[in-house]
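Hi W.,

Here's what went into the run:
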Amino acid sequence: MSEPMPVEAENKSFAICQSCGAKNPAYAQFCYSCGAQQTQTLAPVSATVAASAAPIYSGVVLQLMVSLFLLAVAVFDACQWATQDASPAKFLRPALIGLAAVGLVIGARRSWAGTFGPSTAGGTSARHKRQIITVTVTIGTLLLCTAILFGWLIGKSRKQLRALDADLAQYSAIGDKISKARNEAGETIADYVRMYESIEPDVVALQSCSSRLIGELGDYDIEFPEYHAQTAKSIANISKTQRRMVLLMKQIGVAKKVKTTESDEQKAAWLADLLPLAQEEDKLDDSTSH
Amino acid sequence: MHIVCALIVYTADQHTTTPTLPVGWLVMWWLCARRKNEPIGGWLAYYYYQLYLGVIISIGMVAGLNIHSYVPENFSGQSKVFYMFLLSTLPGLLLLFFEVAAASYLLTLKTWDLVVLLRRVLIASALAEAIGLAVDAKYFPDNLALGMLSFVPHLLWIGYFYRSERVKRVFETHDWQPAPKAALA
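Here's what came out:
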């Protein structure tokens, strides 16, 4: 892609070619249509004159860019905050960044007033003013939309992962507590009944936690398909825990019933009602080991 | 035209700014070559096409595929790796906004001071990419090739905005005029 050789001239209005009648820019030295030399071509201006007469916008433009950027950071942070816990204390950071952005906007307004003051009034200045506003609004809108999108996506993902981490920790802690209580139960029926009564709130909590985890891991599996094998294994383990908790609730029910029966009938009731449930629970572990 | 745009988007480079795959590159080249007599034509038009398409593709890629890499909870127990990842990628992404903004103001206002501003932003972007490459070399060697695909074009565009006659005539002296048809024939 070679660059064509330019011809120096001032570029403003149009002129009609005397040879073919085509409309050309006033600065054209040759007709765009027929190539005939144009007599009314304006004199070229030197680079130094053109550059020295050019207005300087980089200061105000840079301030506008930094203000927009800070505003976008504040919006991004606020979106993350809103999609997560939305606690008032944590709003301080986006609020401070937003305030800094507002401060910069005020500074940019002063630069704007200096750049487009009464001394610079004119057609070009007014056109440039409109152009700066148009570009700022367009880029600002797109940037803020992007900040909202990224803030929302990252905030949502963080919330999901935090909930998953918290539930996995709770799942593990309650599971350990139940296992410990069961392992440390005495040897008599009365000891077992006490143990079952003591673990009932934990079993209920673990059932609820497991249900939440199944849903959360399902979402995780959709978002991270590359870890599907590991996630599927975790879901299978938690499903097994859910089945175990159902059996444990039945065992707790039997233990409560045994507690109300006469002491000489307790052993028979225990063997008849609880033993099959315990054997069923053992099968859960057998099915895993196979 | 929509098909052409879709083709460009489909075949363009997926990392940051510059479409590099042959079909996308050829379509872009054709579009820019058609405009080579215009003030914003030739390589200058190519710069703007690749910049705006690159932004769209970058946002799409980060939002659609790569957003989890920016979630700190995914790096639990590996916070150093997370911060290194941010150091490698974030400055370049943030400076992309400044590049788009400076280039857009330049495109509409066409003043020389904005060329100087854009050059500085490009230099800052190249520095950020160089730091990113150093981080990638140590922590994410798989990303090194993609990083180079973004870094090298930045260097080329810096050279272009310093050396191009078209840039000087369009934005400084405002005397760009295409060669007449008769002269081209």
